[in-house]
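Lecture notes, continued. The same structure-token format from the folding unit now serves as the input rather than the output. Read the line below as a description of shape only.
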């Protein structure tokens, strides 16, 4: 039953006034579908918020969490441990890039990013490079909502309301070039040279001051921007040349979104640090993680000047319910062949998305893996309004769509099939043709 009063809950990243006047309430979920409060099935075109990769209410994950809450509801992570956190770390070490074998657990992607930035600073200090304190992000980057993540991020609205952020942060240029790379599939053809913007910042600040560079391999919340061919490899080369850590923010891309475990694997580029969350537990229990190369962990172990090597952590780091959900998610991904399904469907997915070229309002389409961004022409003086209206109309037609500005972003559960892909984009096209 819907609550009589919707006023007291302050909703995140939401037009609260508009929602509370016309709410879109969800009461249950199963497989590829949500159930609305008025009893309709809603096709989940977004895996919740890029996170429910295994589909809703997967029985293996449900059972694992149910068993965990009956067995060990909570265990402190400071000076005590439980098997789940160690088992999960061991499993992930066999699935992440070769030299990335150590994992620090958080409760979200935002916390993972802030933790990664702190680890990068601590690593350089332990190496005796205490002047390496500068952090480099990228325009149009999204790295969560912690003060560190907002500072290295490059989305204007996320930054403008909160005054002074972290000092010693700079930003590379973004890679979005719709004139040369319009209607793209996979990595875009043009823009590798934009990696040289990092060399410009090295010349400006000197490498002795720069600790780390953080980028999303595929920028998600800014509107689905795949990287230019060779761009990530060039960033890796520049970072190596100047002893700068390269951080991949894979909160969206890890755990099958591109048809493999990580974007690092997909693009064949090994960063120094990977942040993850979302698909780690298929969204069932909040959890994030920071995965680091052996050299970082070992440097901290060998050179820390106190018994505690990293003065950082969270009450819920490695929470028993979260680790149970993560282990079960890894099992579900493997046993049900979900990454393989994502790879097999990447072409039908791209074909269906690009079939919207020429549909009313569509100005660009970008696809990679099981991700698609459909960019719409903005209304004069009202950026984002058209996509917002499309989102609301799609809900009425039985489809959940995510909007970011005037981009419709799609990232379905990895269990989707070709009929559901057809339904998703047919509904989108139908709605676009009715929206002014």
């Amino acid at each position: 039953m819907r609550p009589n009063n919707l006023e007291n809950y302050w909703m995140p990243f939401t037009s609260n006034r508009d929602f509370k006047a016309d709410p879109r309430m969800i009461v249950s979920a199963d497989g590829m579908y949500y159930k609305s409060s008025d009893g309709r099935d809603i096709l989940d075109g977004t895996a919740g918020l890029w996170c429910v990769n295994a589909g809703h209410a997967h029985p293996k994950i449900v059972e694992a969490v149910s068993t965990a809450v009956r067995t060990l509801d909570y265990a402190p992570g400071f000076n005590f441990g439980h098997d789940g956190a160690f088992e999960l770390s061991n499993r992930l070490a066999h699935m992440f890039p070769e030299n990335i074998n150590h994992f620090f657990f958080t409760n979200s992607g935002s916390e993972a990013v802030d933790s990664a930035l702190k680890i990068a600073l601590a690593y350089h200090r332990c190496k005796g490079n205490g002047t390496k304190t500068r952090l480099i992000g990228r325009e149009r980057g999204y790295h969560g909502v912690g003060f560190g993540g907002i500072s290295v991020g490059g989305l204007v609205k996320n930054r403008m309301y909160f005054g002074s952020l972290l000092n010693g942060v700079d930003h590379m240029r973004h890679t979005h070039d719709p004139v040369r790379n319009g209607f793209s599939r996979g990595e875009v053809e043009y823009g590798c040279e934009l990696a040289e913007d990092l060399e410009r910042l090295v010349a400006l600040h000197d490498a002795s001051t720069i600790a780390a560079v953080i980028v999303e391999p595929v920028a998600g919340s800014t509107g689905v921007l795949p990287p230019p061919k060779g761009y990530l490899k060039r960033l890796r080369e520049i970072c190596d040349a100047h002893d700068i850590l390269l951080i991949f923010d894979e909160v969206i891309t890890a755990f099958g979104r591109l048809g493999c475990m990580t974007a690092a694997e997909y693009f064949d580029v090994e960063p120094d640090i990977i942040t993850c969350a979302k698909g780690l537990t298929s969204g069932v229990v909040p959890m994030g993680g920071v995965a680091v190369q052996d050299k970082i962990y070992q440097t901290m172990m060998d050179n820390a000047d106190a018994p505690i090597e990293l003065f950082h952590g969270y009450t819920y780091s490695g929470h028993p319910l979260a680790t149970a959900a993560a282990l079960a998610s890894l099992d579900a991904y493997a046993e049900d062949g979900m990454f393989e399904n994502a790879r097999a469907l990447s072409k039908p997915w791209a074909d269906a998305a690009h079939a919207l070229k020429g549909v009313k309002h569509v100005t660009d389409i970008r696809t990679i893996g099981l991700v698609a961004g459909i960019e719409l022409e903005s209304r004069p003086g009202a950026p984002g309004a058209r996509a917002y209206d499309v989102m609301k109309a799609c809900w009425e037609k039985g489809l959940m769509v995510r909007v970011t500005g005037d981009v419709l972003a799609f990232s379905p559960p990895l269990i989707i099939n070709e009929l559901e892909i057809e339904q998703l984009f047919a509904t989108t096209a139908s709605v676009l043709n009715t929206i002014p």
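Point for the exam: The chain has two domains: 16-54+336-432, 63-335.
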